[in-house]
């Protein structure tokens, strides 16, 4: 049995062991480990997919796109495991037509992404790295007083944290915000998740934007939410508020966000995702925005979360081979974060 991993580097740059995949397949298929062949590639360009997959019946992909045209050239393919929660890299309708099962990996990064939201927010509040560098350049040694600070220091307690999208990550973020003494507002299509949660208040999106000191995006990317953070959205926020996006870059109209920050419509933005990844060098949010913090789509990437992702992906294959597939997304086409 042949398995091909098309773009394994982001998930496993060398600190995890791919053998968990081989072992899961061998056990589930009741095969000797020696005849389970696993081919791993750090990255695969679209024009190399067909030649690399060959006669393999199982492939794993993270961001390598699998279009209908590509899938039609792989008649032996029976299973696609997406090494992520979002699965819009796969033409799911084409997969359904060819009898290919597609699975994803939900919920592997809930704790680490929620933690990262607050890593970004606390960095914004205290600019710890800037002060560390100042001390190491001798600025503290030259001070006449025991203490100094280069930027305003912000306390979170008593402020309002607004969450758009209240799935697993949104719920975890709400718990952390409450632990910091913040008032928590949420708006979500799945408001049932907020029922009987004493520290969460369900409001309309307009109410959330008008009242929140922090607005954090945790909603899926779909036709309804694409570009939702636009000029109108930003003008409804408080001028002192900060926007956080660890969900999907395309939720944000980036040109209008850049303009809003530059004109002090909002105070700033903390972004771990962009609509194009990696971005062009002269991206409007990178080129000149001092009040925007951008990190390279790494909120998900703790070793614990990546190991959990790999374990779930391996379990997905095993479940499929045992005739009880789990986390199947090829029954519908609503790609979610």
Automatic annotation (TrEMBL):
D-isomer specific 2-hydroxyacid dehydrogenase catalytic domain segment(s): 37-329
Could you list this entry's UniProt keywords, alphabetically sorted: NAD, Oxidoreductase
Source taxon at top rank: Bacteria
Which InterPro entries does the entry link to?
D-iso_2-hydroxyacid_DH_PdxB, D-isomer_2_OHA_DH_cat_dom, D-isomer_DH_CS, D-isomer_DH_NAD-bd, NAD(P)-bd_dom_sf
Q: Name one Pfam family in it.
A: 2-Hacid_dh
Q: Which residues form a coiled coil?
A: none
Q: Residue ranges of the D-isomer specific 2-hydroxyacid dehydrogenase NAD-binding domain?
A: 118-299
Q: Which family does it belong to?
A: Belongs to the D-isomer specific 2-hydroxyacid dehydrogenase family.
Which named protein is this? D-2-hydroxyacid dehydrogenase
């Amino acid at each position: 049995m042949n398995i091909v991993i098309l773009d394994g580097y982001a998930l496993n740059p060398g600190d995890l062991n791919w053998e968990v995949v081989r072992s899961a397949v061998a056990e589930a298929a009741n095969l000797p480990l020696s005849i389970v062949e696993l081919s791993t590639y750090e990255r695969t360009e679209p024009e190399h997919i067909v030649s690399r997959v060959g006669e393999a019946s199982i492939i794993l992909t993270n961001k390598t796109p699998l279009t209908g045209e590509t899938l039609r050239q792989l008649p032996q393919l029976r299973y696609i495991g997406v090494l992520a929660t979002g699965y819009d890299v796969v033409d799911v309708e084409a997969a359904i037509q060819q009898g290919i099962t597609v699975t994803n990996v939900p919920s592997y990064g809930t704790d680490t992404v929620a933690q990262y939201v607050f890593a970004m927010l606390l960095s914004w509040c205290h600019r710890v790295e800037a002060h560390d560098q100042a001390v190491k350049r001798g600025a503290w040694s030259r001070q006449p007083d025991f203490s100094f600070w280069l930027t305003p220091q912000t306390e979170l307690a008593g402020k309002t944290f607004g969450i758009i999208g209240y799935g697993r990550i949104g719920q975890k973020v709400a718990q952390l915000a409450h632990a910091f003494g913040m008032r928590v507002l949420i708006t979500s299509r799945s408001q049932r998740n907020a029922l009987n949660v004493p520290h969460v208040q369900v409001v309309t999106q307009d109410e959330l934007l008008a009242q929140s000191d922090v607005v954090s995006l945790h909603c899926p990317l779909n036709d309804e939410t694409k570009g939702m953070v636009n000029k109108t959205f930003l003008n409804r926020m408080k001028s002192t508020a900060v926007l956080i996006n660890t969900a999907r870059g395309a939720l944000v109209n980036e040109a209008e966000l850049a303009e809003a920050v530059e004109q002090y419509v909002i105070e700033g933005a903390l972004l771990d995702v962009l609509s194009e990844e990696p971005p062009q060098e002269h991206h409007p949010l990178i080129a000149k925005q001092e009040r925007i913090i951008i990190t390279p789509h790494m909120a998900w990437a703790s070793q614990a979360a990546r190991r959990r992702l790999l374990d779930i992906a391996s379990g997905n294959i095993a479940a499929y081979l045992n005739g009880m597939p789990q986390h199947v997304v090829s029954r519908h086409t609503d790609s979610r974060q």
